[in-house]
Amino acid sequence: MKKIRCDWKSNNEKLLDYHDNEWAKITHDDRLIFEILILETMQAGLSWLTILLKRENYRKALDNFDYEKMANYDLKKENELMQNDGIIRNKLKIESFSKNAKSFIEVRNEFKSFDKYIWSFVDNKQIVNKVDKMSDINSKTNLSILISKDLKKRGFKFLGPVTVYSFLQATGIINDHLNECFAKYL
């Protein structure tokens, strides 16, 4: 029997695996949350598949998304990353790595974890939307606008409302799987 999935218009195995095993799955692991946050900032303006195909390259280039190490990235490291053809070489986004890592650490220090901070916006309850077709899914909401403003106030870069909404989906804070998708309640 064929699995019914969200209609992402792709048969790419990596994307299907991501859909089946990661997307909208709740995570409370700050390291993974930070990885997703950085990958979402890199995705802005590109397809998610492009980022997924480079994910391992990012892990190698960015010290496995160790925010403590990334907070100390300097001009030498940024120049090294600009030469790395395994990642997207957007100068402004690369320059944001250190700032976002520092801001992430500041939030962790204030709230004891980034997880506690981000889940506080939804009272620690996953939002499960009723989605009949992909066109029903929002690209941003009042929630993503609110969080984006708060993140920017805290010094984060490249986290507008659309990117934040994608981040909320990716970390399982929002579940936008189609109602008939087998992964909706896994």
TrEMBL record:
Pfam families: Adenine_glyco
Molecular function per GO: DNA-3-methyladenine glycosylase activity; metal ion binding
Keywords of this entry: Glycosidase, Hydrolase, Metal-binding, Zinc
BP-aspect Gene Ontology terms: base-excision repair
Membrane-traversing stretches: none
Annotated residues for binding of Zn(2+): C6, H19, H177, C181
Name of this protein: DNA-3-methyladenine glycosidase I
Organism in which the protein naturally occurs: Spiroplasma monobiae MQ-1
